[in-house]
Amino acid sequence: MSENKDQKFVYDFTEGNRDLKDLLGGKGANLAEMTNLGLPVPPGFTITTEACKVYLESGSEPVELRDEVSAHLDALEKQMGKKLGQADNPLLVSVRSGAKFSMPGMMDTVLNIGLSDESVAGLAAQADNERFAWDSYRRLIQMFGKTVLDVDGELFEDALDEAKAAKKVASDTDLDAADLKKVVEHFKKIVKTATGRDFPQDPREQMDLAIEAVFNSWNTDRAKLYRRQERIPGDLGTAVNVCSMVFGNLGPDSGTGVAFTRDPASGHAGVYGDYLQNAQGEDVVAGIRNTVPLAELESIDKKSYDQLMEIMTTLETHYKDLCDIEFTIERGQLWMLQTRVGKRTAGAAFRIATQLVDQGLIDEAEALQRVTGAQLAQLMFPKFDETAKVEQIGRGIAASPGAAVGKAVFDSYTAVKWSRSGEKVILIRRETNPDDLDGMIAAEGILTSRGGKTSHAAVVARGMGKTCVCGAEELEVDTKRRRMTTASGVVIEEGDVVSIDGSTGKVYVGEVPVVPSPVVEYFEGRMHAGADDADELVQAVHRIMAYADRVRRLRVRANADNAEDASRARRFGAQGIGLCRTEHMFLGERREMVEKLILADTDEEREEALKALLPLQKKDFVELFEAMDGLPVTVRLLDPPLHEFLPDITELSVRVALAEARKEPHENELRLLQAVHRLHEQNPMLGLRGVRLGLVIPGLFTMQVRAIAEAAAERIDAKGDPRAEIMIPLVGTVQELEIVREDAEKVIAEVSAKTGVELKLALGTMIELPRAAVTAGQIAEAAEFFSFGTNDLTQTVWGFSRDDVEASFFTAYLEKGIFGVSPFETIDKDGVGALVRSAVEAGRATRPDIKLGVCGEHGGDPESVHFFHEVGLDYVSCSPFRIPVARLEAGRAAAGSAGSDSR
Q1: Cα–Cα nearest to 27, from 352, 234, 325, 334
Q2: Contact 704, 621 (CB under 8 A)
Q3: 515 pLDDT band (50/70/90 cuts)?
Q4: Which of 277, 264, 233, 640 is nearest to 459 (CA)?
Q5: DSSP sequence for 89-123
Q6: What pTM does this model have?
Q7: Residue 894 and residue 186: Cα distance in Å, rounded?
Q8: Where on the phi/psi map is residue 716: left (φ > 0), alpha (ψ -120 to 50), or beta?
Q9: Is residue 733 over pLDDT 70?
Q10: What is the per-residue pLDDT across 795-811, written as a single tens digit (0 to 9) for each?
Q11: Among residues 157, 540, 708, 844, which one has the fewest Cβ atoms lying within 10 Å of its Cβ?
């Protein structure tokens, strides 16, 4: 029962408008809007989403609903001059779902309600077409039986096929009235057998049951799955539209079709759509008969065609967007059954937005809102040729988009070796670790059988713009035997060619041809949008990006660890580096030096190891500052646990055991093994890492600070403009930061005095622990900037290990609706986001000029960027290939909030 006695649950099409989508659903609101525009819409009424909510919450319809429906049905009958289901002159109606957001095919529709054993004869006389009447009746029983009474739909299909086979015809249109009468009888028997009751003959009962079925269809498995996928809230409910029937199956002068005001695939203007003569709407959707292109309607029924073209222009001008239209022609009379803003490809979205600006229908701010970062990302990555013949062998998590082809290799050494010989390779691992970085750089793409979207492989691959498929569990990876075995038993040996699609997660054997992205060529500077031969899509992207850059408040930086990545990021529009991870500088040939540091037993040994690393670190920073000259570069001091720089414990134990068995020298391996055991932690990500390393290992952080300071001084001497910022990771209390800061300031002063160069290096911290966020006001006393490390903050707030949970239970959490999306993919606004918001407020209260940014993976996620704009961060930082997406979304966030303020 509804709480508000005065609540209105039913609206006539003449009462609503397109702004009432929350109440009337998209379909109902747009039917009302077309009615208001004077377009030919069959009369009807809409039952609101509020009625659906009451039904879903209480298990029964609002008590007021039946009387409201009766009143509107009476008005409809008077307007049409017919009564629902009366024997001699029946009114027939359709009952159709219509949620706020389009959910095509996910919920229920029933046509021809009001037909019965009595009224079918009246419809035949009314239409002067007996075959049409019986065809409509069999359609009602079939749709009603399947949708409302939950009868297996294949039973009806089989019965119809039997009738066609008996008549020796291929199409149901070849069945005459006598044939269809037999089909109706057969259908009624199917209903009786399956449900234990006769097909309802009372037209009002038919309508009421259909309305209830539409309400129930909101919570079907397919509807819930679709909502999760499209991130549509589950508490909206659906409206129900009751519309007087118009018939496209009255003969060759009737038909039904779907039209688009411009091409949803390309965005180009023209006549796009399909038409089917002598048919009802579900015939087009079901694809049971071949349609003809909409353009052919001109020769079939020029009057209706011309009228439709005028209406399409009216609707596109009114909605100021691409419109998707459903229509029916009944004996030469055109009727509009639905319109909505049409779905489109990513390329079409950008083209249409700029076209509408040129037509004066929308301004640049609105054009920016018509596209999304997700669409831009789709345009940036190469794709496999969809026309190619392929053999799929597995599927994993689409971790980093793109299409990559190469020879299978199973370790980084081989990947680098083969790559240097000119081979394209795909690095295949059970999972990757920092030691695989060289191989990942060398490979065209990365495939792992474990891990999720925020695993090491995924995060690093996205940072490099490298295609990656993770967590392909059905593929068994055997790195020792250098082979991969599929679930069906196909064996991929090292050297065999494989193709991986990072946009879908699909894995193929053999080479699948790819199509390059002109949009990336534009961002890389290899294609100029102003050139006469510039791709039309590139021009559209250029125009929208230029506007986004003009209006956005958030600056966009890059996560980059070397000069090459920094240069690419700068070409992509980065305004500095928000995260340089120095641990990546300690791998490869420098690993031996790090091992010496870890194994050092005396101060002298430790100082010697640090002294050897210093010039190498300095060289890295010089190159980085040169690539980002004039822009800020935030360098994070060493963060991961030291065991990551040592060999695997199992592998090392085997080496030691073999050496002892062979009585070979193994003193160094034994020391390494002892160090591995000494550094072993049950949960290393919550152990000795970050600032704790700097406090426990004397000289480690000061060596890095000295390298940064000396590199900055060298660049200043060379007339450069380095803008280095030093970031202390994993701080949980202000005392940690104060100690490191004091030591760092001494080193910077020493370098400044020694070089004669005045150095101004900002010192700040990452906020990646809940305690840091809660005590941000205290920490800001010692920090000139905060950078939110939302990857670790999400881990520590939720108590998740991001390398484990995605593969183990995230799928179940998503299916059960606990997550709408992984909190590692889009920031958890209520939990993690609340900590970010409070830390921003506390930090600014202590230090009003504090600089605030984010450098976790969320910095490149479209939805998260809007949140960071809202809470007042100064910049986001993300992997180079996500920079254009972040720029676009930062612009959309600014334009959207400006529009909200003005409203």
Answers
A1: 325
A2: no
A3: confident
A4: 640
A5: SEE-EEEEEEESS--TTTS-EEEEET--TTHHHHH
A6: 0.80
A7: 62
A8: alpha
A9: yes
A10: 999 998 877 777 678 77
A11: 157
Q: Say how far apart CA 446 and CA 404 lie, in whole Å.
A: 9
Sign of CA dihedral 702, 706, 708, 709: positive
Q: Judge whether 351 and 519 are in contact, CB under 8 Å.
A: no
Q: Which residue among the candidates 855, 858, 866, 878 is catalytic per the annotation? A: 855
Q: How far apart are CA 766 and CA 777, in angstroms?
A: 14
State which H helix or E strand residue 79 sits in.
helix 65-80
How would you class 607 by CB atoms within 10 Å of its CB: exposed for 0-12, middle for 13-18, buried for 19 or more? Answer: middle
Task: Convert the pLDDT of each residue in 19-65 to its tens digit.
Answer: 999 999 999 999 999 999 999 999 999 999 999 999 999 989 999 99
Cα gap 533→651, rounded to integer Å: 57
Beta strands in 203-294 (DSSP E): 238-244, 255-262, 269-277, 292-293
**Which residues fall within 8 angstroms of residue 801, CB to CB, at 6 or more apart?**
683, 685, 795
Please give the share of the chain, as a percent, with pLDDT higher than 70. 94
Of the candidates 281, 391, 361, which has an alpha carbon nearest to the alpha carbon of residue 327?
A: 281
Distance, CA of 168 to CA of 150 (rounded, Å):
30
Instruction: Summarize pLDDT for 459-481 with one digit per residue, the tens.
Output: 677 766 688 898 888 999 999 89
Q: What b/e sequence results for 184-202 when a residue is b if at least 16 CB atoms lie within 10 Å of its CB, and e otherwise?
A: bebbbebbeeeeeeebbee
- Torsion angle of alpha carbons 864, 868, 869, 872, nearest 10°? 170
**Inter-residue contact 267 to 352 (CB < 8 Å):** yes
Parallel, antiparallel or unpaired: strands 397-400 and 93-99: unpaired
Q: Residues 431-457: what's their mean pLDDT? A: 79
Amino acid letter for position 120: V
Q: 501 pLDDT exceeds 50?
A: yes
Within 13 Å and on the Cβ side, how many CA atoms surround 626?
14
Q: Confirm whether 855 is a catalytic residue.
A: yes
Mean pLDDT, range 509-520, rounded to an integer: 87
Looking at residue 651, what is its pLDDT? 72
What distances in angstroms separate CA 587 from CA 357, 389, 444, one per listed residue?
A: 51, 41, 20
Q: How far is CA 388 from the centre of its chain?
A: 25
Beta carbons within 8 Å of 796's beta carbon, 6+ residues apart: 686, 768, 769, 770
Give strand pairing partners of 95: 110, 242
Contact status, residue 470 vs residue 448, Cβ threshold 8 Å: yes
- Range from 365-374, 392-401, 682-691 carrying the lowest mean pLDDT: 682-691
**Burial (Cβ within 10 Å: 0-12, 13-18, ≥19) of residue 241:** buried
- d(CA 136, CA 111) in angstroms, rounded, equals 9
Predicted pLDDT of residue 204: 96
> What is the pLDDT, as a whole number, of residue 434?
63
Q: Any bridge partners for residue 506, and if so which? A: 395
Q: How far is CA 331 from CA 248, 252, 570, in A?
A: 8, 8, 63
Q: Cβ(817)–Cβ(228) under 8 Å?
A: yes
Q: Over range 275-298, report the average pLDDT.
A: 75
Averaged pLDDT, 365-373:
96
Q: Measured between alpha carbons, how far is 714 from 752 in angstroms, rounded to an integer?
A: 11
Q: Is 72 a catalytic residue?
A: no
Here the tokens at position 465 are 């713009």
Q: Which helix (H) or strand (E) holds 835?
A: helix 832-846
pLDDT in tens, 224-255: 867 776 778 888 999 999 999 999 988 899 99
Q: What are the start-end ranges of the H helices in 37-64?
A: 49-58
Banded model confidence at residue 286, pLDDT cuts 50, 70, 90: very low
